[in-house]
Write a structure and sequence with these properties.
Layout (H helix, E strand, L loop, with lengths): L26 H18 L4 H20 L5 H26 L7 H24 L5 H17 L7 H24 L6 H21 L3 H20 L9 H22 L3 H21 L4 H18 L6 H21 L4 H20 L3 H20 L9 H17 L3 H13 L5 H5 L6
Helix pairs in contact: 1-2, 1-3, 2-3, 3-4, 4-5, 5-6, 6-7, 7-8, 7-9, 8-9, 9-10, 9-11, 10-11, 11-12, 11-13, 12-13, 13-14, 13-15, 14-15, 15-16
InterPro entries: TPR-like_helical_dom_sf (IPR011990)
Length: 442
């Protein structure tokens, strides 16, 4: 699910502090926490976002100075944990604010610079966690969290060996935490610990798939599924465990695996079976969190993935059915809950464009034109929507604009298509060669 997935180690409850400590004895740390919360509130509003970032940055710098003068004891560890969590949160905030800006000729370069700042913040968090002198478990979990975040932000870049080493260390730390917690019989903490292990292995699987290590990716995918299943066995709804979130992540990982099977192993029948399993998990996630738009969007993505795989077969009807389910059972339901939800709107446009392609393939040009027109209306709406949360990376946003141009062209809106493509060319979001060779833009 593009832009919507947050791993368990990065989640916080609605009333949670940015510190991992349950209590903070130091009044000074209390003051820092209040300032950080005030800054976060400003950042959440577009009109005060820059002011909020400046306040957060000043508070973070003061907190760094406080930590530098702290002793190597429990109070010092509290300060380091507070600094680490604040640095990780700031990394996410500066990326979100950057991505909310309008696309321009400098978007790609601006985002790259902001990403480097965010990675530097995550590395600060890593050093703070590594400096903990008390609980080995807290230290290991914090280190793994920071390492995982560094990879999510793009740390290591194209250096596959560096990314692999970072992920391997995160897996090792999370495994240590899970084993220690299981051995201590602290059953209430086993589920999130195993969940973290599963999430880390999913990252390893996807990285290995990207680098062409098919066997290694297959192994890591299977390990992650086994861990999700074990984590589910320790889940207790009466204790307030987030079963919906666990099923959501499990379902998203299955969607990822289905694509891997189809693209890397050409195992379409197995991929369809895994896509069905993803649908099952994501339906269940939605049942445990009624009204969760994120779960509905992920369900729609799973149906679209299944349709993409089914479209390889001669009979287009099953793929058409899967796309209709994506629209009716997922995206349209999400839009009834929130008519301005960006990802649901984009998903609806994607599904209708895919329907149009299948109808054209079968010679039903009337239905193809109707689907193209509906797709363009969805994309046009998406382009006009603001997203106060995170509309995605510049590359993801460029792709949405490009797909919107394709939909406009197929719907007969040539002027709109030309306008969008000219904007993309100015932003270096596509090339003239790609446009000239795209049948949707003829």
């Amino acid at each position: 699910m593009a832009g919507g997935y947050v791993p368990p180690h990065a989640r916080r409850g609605k009333n949670a502090s940015s510190s991992a400590s349950t209590t903070i004895a130091s009044p000074t740390l209390d003051a820092f926490e209040r300032e950080l919360r005030a800054a976060s509130k400003r950042i959440s509003r577009a009109e005060t976002a820059e002011e909020g970032l400046a306040l957060y940055a000043r508070t973070l710098e003061n907190l760094r100075a406080f930590v530098a003068s702290s002793s190597q004891d429990e109070r010092g560890d509290e300060a380091r944990v507070s600094l680490a969590n604040a640095a990780l949160e700031y990394a996410g905030e500066i990326m979100r604010v950057e991505r909310r800006k309008a696309l321009s000729t400098t978007t790609r370069a601006d985002e790259a610079r902001t990403k480097e700042r965010a990675i530097s913040c995550a590395q600060d968090a890593l050093r703070a966690f590594e400096g903990l002198s008390g609980s080995p478990l807290e230290k290991a979990n914090g280190v793994a969290t920071a390492l995982s975040r560094i990879v999510e932000l793009g740390g290591g870049g194209d250096n596959a060996a560096e990314v692999s080493a970072t992920l391997a260390r995160a897996v090792e730390m999370y495994d240590y935490c899970a084993t220690s917690i299981e051995n201590s019989q602290a059953h209430e903490d086993v589920m999130p610990a195993l969940w973290n292990c599963a999430d880390a292995r999913l990252k390893v699987a996807e990285h290995r798939a990207e680098t062409g290590d098919v066997d290694g990716a297959s192994t890591s995918y299977r390990e992650s599924f086994s861990l999700y299943e074990r984590a589910c066995g320790f889940c207790d709804a009466n204790r307030g465990d987030d079963l919906s979130g666990l099923l959501y992540d499990w379902g998203c990982s299955l969607t990822s695996y289905a694509l891997f099977l189809a693209q890397s192993l050409d195992a379409s029948e197995d991929a369809v079976r895994i896509a069905d399993a993803a649908v099952e998990k994501l339906r269940a996630a939605g049942q445990f969190a009624i009204g969760d738009v994120g779960a509905l969007n992920a369900l729609g993505d799973a149906y679209q993935t299944k349709a993409e795989i089914l479209s390889r077969f001669d009979d287009a009807a099953p793929a058409v059915d899967s796309l209709r389910l994506a629209i009716c059972e997922a995206y349209d339901v999400a839009l009834k809950l929130n008519s301005t939800e960006l990802n649901s709107t984009i998903g609806r446009g994607e599904a209708h464009m895919a329907l149009a392609a299948l109808f054209r393939r079968s010679g039903d040009h009337a239905r193809a034109d109707e689907a193209s027109d509906t797709a363009w209306k969805a994309y046009d709406k998406a382009l006009k929507l603001g997203d106060k949360n995170d509309p995605g990376t510049c590359e993801e946003r460029f792709e949405v604009v490009y797909n919107a141009a394709c939909a406009a062209n197929r719907a007969g809106q040539r002027d709109a298509a030309r306008h969008l493509l000219s904007q993309l060319l100015l932003c270096d979001g596509t090339t003239q060669e790609a446009i000239d060779n795209d049948p949707d833009l003829k």
